[in-house]
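Quick start: what a row looks like.
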Amino acid sequence: MILELDVGNTRGKWRYLVEGEVIARGDIETAQLREQVMPFGWADLTPQRFRVVNVAGPIVAEFLSQVARNLFTLEVEFSAVAPQCAGVICGYEDHSALGVDRWLAMLAAYQQSSRASLIVDCGSAVTLDLLDNSGRHIGGYIVPGFGLMNRALSADTHAAKSREELALTKTLGAGRNTNEAINRGLLLMVLGAVDRAMEELRSRSGSLPLLWLTGGDAQLLSAVYQHEHRLVPDLVMDGLALSNP
């Protein structure tokens, strides 16, 4: 019985596995964890291990450690980036500077495909990481996420304000009102980054890469991306079994 938790900058999500099968899952705002609010349903769990990927900082890490000791009588197994793991070689000059969530997503993608891959995590920021056919991490890109870009437009312009949350759409046709123009424009910007990164990886690897989409806003991108790709919401947590076997 294993409890796994992926804590991002804005939200955290967890799942509870028994003999490899997910039997419970949930989510929580990262701000609640900083305020020492325990995720709903944890009091009923009896994990034998507690694996965590945390990019939200030491306050959250300390709270999770306290919960693990007091509620589960366990020590948290925090994932960390290594120079090499599960066939993947980190491309950063200083491997400890790479976000651990990006690292785990790469481990999981390569373990599932063993081919050149572009891993795109759509969260508060959108990260794009390039893996070649041999599992070598070529490097990556980081751009603002949809929410950040939308808030920047709203804060720094008078008229360009979207009154609605970015919603699923299957068209990128030019918007005929401000909401459509902003929402489709944001998607177009991220798709442009994806296309450029795919071309970069294709030229470096000599083969057609596979695109992986994960993160809270990944479904928005998946709905408008016209080529082969895999939408895997739990890709980061899938990597925990590789970094912390």
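That is the whole record. The chain has a mean pLDDT of 92. The chain has two domains: 2-78, 84-243.
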